Amino acid sequence: MTEGHESRHQGDDLRGAARRELKPAPATGVHRDPGARVASATSATADGPEHTTVPFAYDGILLSGFGGPEGQDDVLPFLRNVTRGRGIPDERLEEVAHHYRHFNGVSPINDQNRRLLAALTGALQEAGLDLPVYWGNRNWSPYLDEALQEAAADGARNLLAIPTSAYSSYSSCRQYREDWADALEASGLQDELRIDKVRQFFSHPGFIAPFVEGLESAVREAVSAGNDRGSIEVLFATHSIPTLDAELSGASLFGDAYGGGYAAQHLAAAREIIARVDPDLAWQLVYQSRSGPPSQPWLEPDINDAIEALTDRTAVIIVPLGFVSDHMEVMWDLDEEATETAQNRGLWVTRTPTPGVHPAFVGALVDLVQERLEGRPVGQRKNTTSIGPWFDVCRPGCCENRRLGFKPAIAGLVP
Known about the structure:
single chain; Rossmann fold; 2 domains; four-stranded parallel β-sheet; 12 helices; disordered N terminus
């Protein structure tokens, strides 16, 4: 590994250098070997197993983030990337931009991912795994195609991708798979690189542990502030999504259940956390960051509405269950708006940490890599909720976005 390559892995990326504003263009197709059911897949997953038990020697990890602006001049170009194809004028984007401008145009998400990149690289080395980690974003520099070009230049041919999202939905899974397809085509590496992905990790004990720790601490703090445990409401918060998208999440395994697999996975994680902390705590799953036209149904209740509806409560603990790290939806929608709503109601309120670079979470990511290197049988995989372990290869139609139409994607069975 060259000195420059090592430096890039430690997060010394393009900050301060000239940035490309546009993300890769949408792919027009995907690479599929003869007989393969999964596009751009390794031999371990090309025939589309739910869980692969084939040991496979990956030669790199693709850490995949959402991306975020790192200055005022980045904000609108970044939001254009996020909303590309929807025809949203800049005037409407500015309605969202003020959230970023409140923090000087800087989202914390890139620095969060720099820290995760360094922590994951170190943890892999400590586990005896000589695997470089390449970091690319979907919507801002460093982009995914830049990460793929770096990996290919290093001689990598088979990558295992880790999205920085734990759940099934269009925006938290399928869209990553589409953007990997876009990046492969944009970089001209469709015939050279193969990309598999780790399973959704909402049920991994290393993902659950930081939330348990955070909630235990918050309950102690609330009680020390004079609140009875019976007067505390725990709000597990996650990003709202359109109800149609939710119904199509999770490979349609949950029938007519409200919120589909997306809600079911969050509820399973929340129940596990509550069971470990205090089964008698009052809690609910709430949603935040709704966008889109008022006529389009999104998952409810909104966290602010849920707080307004509380009775016989003196304290609110917000658990950002839908998020791996702090970013704008956490800092603005929870730390600013929801906190203000609670304070206006006279409620004691706190927000627990996201997993970030908690050792248990970083260890979980290493374990997800190890189970694929080993071809670990599903019954031996770490899982701590009532559902899971989730699939290695996304199932047909899982997390489809019918509003935006079909787009090429990898790491799953079509469509």
